[in-house]
Design a protein that fits this description.
Helix content is 35%, strand content 15%. It is an alpha/beta fold and 255 residues long. The N terminus is likely disordered.
Length: 255
């Protein structure tokens, strides 16, 4: 298969797999970048074609304005993925990325396509809101949050100049996800599998189970030892969950 046209600002394809019958789209967390999913791409290629979404305001897009809202971000990503639905799509989003994946799936389904599965990691259900105000903190307060969640490379947190360069994008991400409110009764048709750490300060098991209210398809909950970034220490377990999914949804060669 030849690759479809793409907006390369948004979609990163670290290990192109043009002959793969399925495609995984990965959505980063607040402050995260597409490169967070480089190991996932390396692991699944060439059986699965992996795309990682790159939000504005970071890495090679650092000169662009950051995210304004989850809804606007979802609209942009939906447009960017328009040429990539030539084979079955699976979405994986961690933290903020989980709600972005959910909102993109809603928009794609409304247009007549959409993913076959959403993996929502480390995020409470869209209908479960908290009064969080990290985006209102000063720079030191945001850095403290990043350290507490252990989701940012320690080398980056120690590089003052680089850290100050990306803080505006991180603040924008937090503003977008902390002010996000899903539409009443918002659902998708595809199944949702939720993955969460059993000691995640940002998502309780009850908040994770509430994702079941947001799908008319199947629902599954997988709980792992760890905190908000459980998937860093449990990468092999997460990859096993994805491998299980792709094994069950294998498309016959030439189909």
């Amino acid at each position: 298969m030849s690759p479809p046209p793409t907006d390369d600002l948004w979609c990163r394809r670290f290990h192109p797999a043009p002959d793969a019958s399925r495609r995984l789209v990965c959505f980063p967390h607040a402050g995260g970048s597409a490169s967070f999913y480089f190991p996932v791409s390396a692991e699944l290629s060439p059986d699965v074609d992996v795309l990682a979404v790159q939000y504005p305001g970071r890495q090679d897009r650092r000169k662009e304005k950051g995210v304004d809202s989850i809804e606007e971000l979802a609209e942009s990503v939906t447009r960017a993925l328009g040429g990539w639905d030539d084979r079955p799509l699976t979405f994986f989003g961690h933290s903020m990325g989980a709600v972005v994946a959910f909102e993109v799936a809603r928009r794609m389904e409304q247009a007549g396509s959409g993913p076959v599965q959403i993996f929502a990691s480390g995020r409470r259900a869209p209908s479960r809101n908290r009064d969080e105000r990290v985006h209102r903190r000063d720079d030191d307060g945001i850095v403290a949050e990043l350290r507490a969640l252990s989701g940012t490379d320690a080398k980056l947190l120690g590089d003052e100049e680089l850290l100050r360069m990306i803080l505006p994008a991180i603040r924008s991400d937090y503003r977008a996800v902390e002010t996000y409110r899903s539409a009443d009764g918002a659902t998708v048709q595809c199944p949702i599998t939720v993955l969460v750490g059993d000691d995640d300060p940002r998502t309780t098991l009850d908040e994770a189970r509430a994702w079941s209210d947001h799908t008319t398809g199947g629902f599954d909950l997988r709980v792992f030892p760890g905190g908000h970034f459980y998937l860093s220490s449990r990468a092999a377990d997460v990859m096993a969950v994805l491998a299980e999914h792709f094994a069950l949804t294998a498309v016959p060669h030439g189909a």
